Structures are given as C-alpha cells and as structure tokens.
What does this fold into?
Amino acid sequence: DEGPADALVAEIKAAGGQAVANLASVATPEGAKSIVQTALDAFGQVDVLIHSAGNVRRGFLTELSYEDFESVLAVHLNGAFNIVREAMPVMTARAYGRIVLTGSINGLYGKANNATYAMCKAGFMGLSNTAAIEGASTGIKSNVIIPAAVTRMSEGIDTSKFPPMEPELVAPAVAWLSHEDCSISGEMLVAMGGRVARAFVAESEGVFRKNWTIEDVAADIDAIRAAETPLVFTPVPHGELDHLLFGFDMALRNG
It folds into this structure.
C-alpha cells in the first residue's frame, strides 16, 4: 500500500529525519533482498530490523481455506525468515545489529477464528531465539515485541470499550529493543495500553520415574502440572542445554 509508506516517509522527513520507502513484499526472497538493498543504498548499513509486515485471513479450523492459510504464512512467517536471512549477514559483517519481530498475544495463547495468524506469531519466538543465539558472538540482539494497539488491522473490531491503546504506547518499548543500549536478547516484551511486561516460556519441575505407563501419567498429572516453582531456561546463551542438563541431573539423582 503506497499511501501509508509514503505518508510515513513524509512524516519522518518533516521531523528532521531521513527515510526512504520500499514497496516490495517480504513474502518473497527477492522482495526481502530488495528491502535490505534499499536500506544499504540509502544509508550504507543496516543497524536495526523491525519486522512488522502482516495480513489477516480469519477462519475456523473447520473452514479455513488453504489459500488463506498460505497467504498469511507467506507474509508473516516466511516474510520474517526472508528479511532476517537477508539482514543477518549485513549485521554480522559489522558485528552489530538489533532485530525486533512483531509477535502477538494470539501467538502466546491462540485465537479462535484466526489459527494461521496465531501459528505464525508463535513461530516468531523460535526464529528470534535462534537469531539471538547465532548473533550473540557478533553483537546482534534479537527480541520479540508483543503489542496490542488500535491500528489499520483493527478494522471491523468494536474498540469502543477499549482503554487508550494508541501505537504510541507501544513505540517506546520497540525503540528500546532497537537501541544500542538494549541489554536483553532472546526475550519477549508485552506492550499494551500502558502496560509493559516480560513474557516467557516456563516449565514445571516435573516428576521422575525410571519407567512410565499411561496409568502413571494419569496418576501423577497434578504433580506433573504443578507450577509453584516454575523453571525458566533463558534462550541466550544456552537455554536448550540448560533444559537438557536439568533433565539429566534429575535422572542421575533419582536413578
């Protein structure tokens, strides 16, 4: 949509900044290459990447068309990979970069009538964590912003009873994640209506048995699910390894 892009460029320039628009789609590798190249041509480098391209095709799982599924997947998840894939080498060469992927509470908790959107947004967590891990040694930090604001994508939704939810209440969190002073990587920040919080994946301590049956799982399900002392394995520097070592230690202590 050429109108909003050009309007934003004009707004930035009017405020004394520099900006250039690129109307290519992140849904294709060629489009992502074009976007990154436009930034390089205009500014000579890519310091910050914010992936916020999106579309919505609503439908329940019993009726969602494959065409609508592919449309959302192409822009959101494929688009995120395409643009990160093109920006990472540029950032790596300069040993600096900030990546912010725009997630959603739908990706955290699911959403009826919006399965593809929820699925794609959930996928951002894995992509951002991987970029954070791979970029840790070269000054690249990657995080997910989980915003809620009234925007053009809110058309058709009754927002009359919402509290103030302007995008301006989200922008400061995004700006900090994009800043050179950002101190976190591989994390998720929620920003909605004046509230900023951290979202994260946690596990219960779990239950150990040398052997399991389906009856054992049924008998222990409350203890398995007990989350009074949740475990959080921070992705960076080695959350996957921490997860494995915790399980290994439990097996060794109880074996």
About this structure: The first helix runs from residue 2 to 14.
